[in-house]
Amino acid sequence: MDIKEQSHRQYDLPEAKASQKHYTTPDGYLDGLAQQIMAALPEQEVRPAQPVGWWVKAKPIIYLAASFVGLYYGFKAVNSFTPEARVEQVAQQVADAGVQTEDDYWLYLQDYSESLGELEFEPTLEGD
Q: What pLDDT, in 10s, does the model give residues 19-71?
């Protein structure tokens, strides 16, 4: 017998009335069930609720704030490796070094590039 024939085969199922008798309870079984269960349980003393401390209430808020601070500094750290951020750092260092003229700027860049081990700058002024 193949699968197709098995799927169309009729099974002998009981009548609806005969199958319902398995799902019934004796008469009066549920009438006093709650009282019987409560009587069978051991007695326990009722304890008053413990007060909740401030730390338990504040902990979720503090954790949420800490996660936002972590995200802020995480994105800030990732963005500090971009070329734009590096240009801003160099510009701030130039401003902190007190560069006043274009010659001072080229000298500063030359010193800076030597400290990094990069190519040397050849200052070429437009007026030369």
A: 777 777 778 888 888 888 888 888 888 889 889 999 999 999 999 999 999 99
Q: Which residue blocks in 8-122 are alpha helix, DSSP H?
A: 16-20, 33-40, 54-79, 83-97, 102-116
DSSP label at residue 25: -
Give the chain's end-to-end CA distance (angstroms, integer). 102
**CB-based burial label for 24 (10 Å; 0-12, 13-18, 19+):** exposed
8 Å CB contact between 97 and 108: yes
pTM assigned to the model: 0.35
Distance CA 109, CA 95 (A): 12
CA 43 from centroid of its chain's CA atoms: 45
> Which position has the token pair 């030369």?
128
